[in-house]
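Minutes, project check-in
Item: structure for the 336-residue chain
Input as provided by the requester:
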Amino acid sequence: MIRAWISRTAEQAQAELETLDESEFDGQDVVLKLHYSCLNYKDALALTHTAPIARKYPMVHGIDAVGEVIESNSDQWPVGTVCQVNDWGLGETHWGGLAERASVPAQWISPIPAGRSARWAAALGTAGYTAALCVMALQDHPVKPEDGPVLVTGVSGGVGTVACLLLQHLGYEVVGLTGSIDAMGEPVSESAAKHFERLQLGSTHLIHRESMSRQGKPLQKEQFAAVVDSVGSHTLVNACAQTKYGGVVAACGLAQGMDFQGSVAPFILRGITLRGINCVYRTHAERDRAWGMLAQALNEYDLDFMIKEVRLAQALDSARLVLANQLQGRVVVNCA
């Protein structure tokens, strides 16, 4: 029997932790005994039924899965291999990783970088991998450290936190936007203070999100060479309006909203580029590059400050805290 967070119908108020028979799982190439998953913002929306993340039902939630191969029809992934799956429709169209087991196609699996653990991979998960994709977009544009500061929104969350760490490692000056500081720039809680203490050891300066969360002018003072945005809505519009001539904005999230009530002015008058970052169906070459960047920049110790580890049974309660902006960094779910 296998425990899993599952929604049977869209009409449920929330997902339920059920004990399932192995026969209920899809028979795919590889079966994983899961060691860890994690809670991304998307997972929190799905578990609480705050947004319609699942595309079909019943659905086991969780867009990340990290574990050991226990059954395999693939020569590439023999029994005993510890590996990971990020996105590919997990938790949306295919049963996901907030469970004790997962059955997945072999082509969805990625290796964990050499010298890194299953817990390290889960601590980063889709959020960290997405942050790396955003930084790759900046490098490919290209934006260099000497071009000026990079704005990172949502630095209380996983994508923003990891983006800050990567950019610091690469020598960029970072400005972090967050709602977890007060008007005087002081953290609003003890956990926020600990989180930001680590970020500010590098080259990250924090500003309150209020300055960018309301509708602003189509063109504003040029401040940022580039932007990594996980928020959307007015914040993304204002970020574009403040991006320097020829800069790039990598957009990957919608924590504030899906709307984009902006102007073409930054695009046609300053020639900025808005790059959409979709992490679900990226090629293995792109995934390998992203995970290579993460492995080179961040070791196990570097992530300790941002990890809150919970048991599988605690996933729903933790999801509510994520949506209430009461947790900073990353929630790692121990599935064992």
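Outcome recorded: The first strand starts at residue 2 and ends at 7.
No further action items on this chain.
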